[in-house]
Design goal:
The structure holds 2 protein chains of 2 kinds. Chain A is mainly alpha-helical. Chain A has one domain. Chain A is built from 8 helices and 2 strands; from the N terminus they run ββαααααααα. In chain A, strands 1-2 form a two-stranded antiparallel sheet. In chain A, helix 3 packs across helix 4, helix 3 packs across helix 8 and helix 5 runs parallel beside helix 8. The longest helix of chain A is centred in the C-terminal third of the chain and has 47 residues. The N and C termini of chain A lie far apart (about 50 Å). The model of chain A has no long low-confidence stretch (mean pLDDT about 90). By secondary structure, chain B is an all-alpha fold. Chain B has one domain. Chain B is built from 3 helices and no strands. In chain B, helix 2 crosses helix 3. Classes of the chains: A mainly alpha, B mainly alpha. Chains A and B meet through helix 1, helix 2, helix 3, helix 4 and helix 5 of A and helix 1 and helix 2 of B.
Chain lengths: ~260, ~190
Amino acid sequence: MIIGALEFPPIENVVEWPAWFGDGTPFAFNKIAFINLLAALITIGIFMVAGSKKAVVPRGVQNLAETSVDFIRNEVIAPGIGHGGERYLPMLLSMFFFLFFSNITGIIPLFNMPATARMATPLVLALLAWIWFIGVGLKHHGFSYITGALFPPGVPKALYLLVTPIEFVSTFLVRPFSLAVRLFANMLAGHILLVTFSVLCITLWGLQPLVAALPLSLFMLIALTGFEVLVAFLQAYIFTILTAVYIGGALHPEH
Amino acid sequence: MLATALLLAAETHSEETTKTVNPILPTGAEIFWAVVTFFLLWLLLRYVFLPPVMRVMEEREERLREARAAAEGATSGADDAVAAYDRRVNEARAEANAIVTAARDEVEVYRAQKLAEANAEVAAMREQAAAEVAAAKAAALQQLRGQVAGVAVNAASRVVQKDLPLDAQLQVIEDYVNQANGGGPR
């Protein structure tokens, strides 16, 4: 796509990645799959190294792993689930690390693409969160979890005509959709912004009269790269804590 | 940063595709790998790699709890020792006060006793002195009475030109004085 002197890449080039192997099969392995695999392997590596150390005063990787566990415990499970939330630590910890490493590759040279800027990863994790919180509600409260969610106590019966469809849509349909879209849209927008300013920098470098504008574009590129670090962490945290809140709501619906 | 930009540009220019791709819809293969990699991570973390980390953290927590309990025990022991010391100091202070009070009482009793003895001695001396004064006064009076009677008999003998019997006259004078002292006519 050419706008004036700038040649922006078509959206397919920004988000679609050719298969490295297995092309045309349901197991086609491309850059997105590689980033997912890498996110899992890095997380496993961190906890494998941390688990082999038993220092009283944790340092390095052990410190990182233990701090992460404390972070998920104190900042995600405690406010999101509360009592009885400790059993969900492995899932929420996996989710946070998997998302963070899938996000952060958007600013790592040679990767330059967050896996979450494709819908697959957010969708899989959002569906998992959806299945998980409904499963928790059914396991702990039986079918009354569904009826309690659709027919909130204390509401005049006539209002159920209005409230029940809203609760059904917001609790059982919108939640996974909003989880997935929030993450996907944020990461794709960040990725497109970085591509845009990168292309702008390169184009300005080649246009002699306009090269004076290059520092401004480069500054924006650097600033947005820093911002994307924050976004990578924040989106992983938001996704994880919302999952915890949904699980907490299913576990303690009275709250 | 520039390398990143160049790489992005290279990727941008490298593929000129003609097919239309929906950037929102995921591909089946990406979903497959997302499921496989996440569940791999979750299961390995849940059953293999997270438990040792949690164990180390729990052991440290336990050690901290024990150390804290020991510190609290030591603090409590120190508090008990301080309380016992204070109790002993208070007991010693009370004992000292009791000793001082007893000594003061004893001194007071002794002083009162000595004072009473001194007062009794003074009273006895005063009585003895008064008795001596009274005896001396009686003797002097007796002596004076005899001399006065003698002078009076002598004077009477000169007046009557006759020797009066001294003993009889003295008896008369004596009777008169006694009568005067007894409230009779003077």
